[in-house]
Design goal:
about 10% helix; globular; Porin; mainly beta; 10-stranded antiparallel barrel; single chain; about 60% strand
Amino acid sequence: MLFKGVVISLAVVPFLCLSAFPASGKPPMRYTVLFNDDIRHADENFYSNRLEAFFIKEINSRSAESVSLRVAPFVEVRHSVKRRKRERVSTGIELGLEWRDFFYLGQQFRQVWRSEPVFNRRVIKNTNMFETVSIVTLSRRLIPAKDILKGYISGEYTYDFRLGRGTRVESIAGLLIPLAKEAELNLDWRHRDRIHSDDCDTFELSAAYKF
């Protein structure tokens, strides 16, 4: 019953967003291709494809104190590089509050089919689970008055309702590089603390296109 309720909710939310965040035309969308290189466990390298839409409402549009609310439905598919198999499919919604393009506080709710192999890396668990991810990000332009390079640090905490406990705490540092008006390159390092399991360190490279 809980699983069916989650799926129905995630299907209905985008339509509720359309009425709560009225806008002319379609909402902005972003398609991202990502490659993750696990420094400690090469057999866990993966690449992913992610599609998301953005419903944004400005609370205060003054540039000095701009505040906006964000609702972003998404779907993401991950594939293992070594096993050449689809390992993880997730869909959900992220709610966020952004202040001055500097501070971001987000809460993600997602339903996951299949899970990354954690306890036995050669076996992919066929598991349905509902997760939440709490996100805090601080970002800053590294070259004053020029939007050509941005640095950021971020923290993420994942809670698995199936297990009834937190499963990951991630510390992230990265760079955002605009490639064009609609495209952006992201490079980051992250330490992933798998609670009660192996930790790992990864480098991620992704390219995103907005349309």
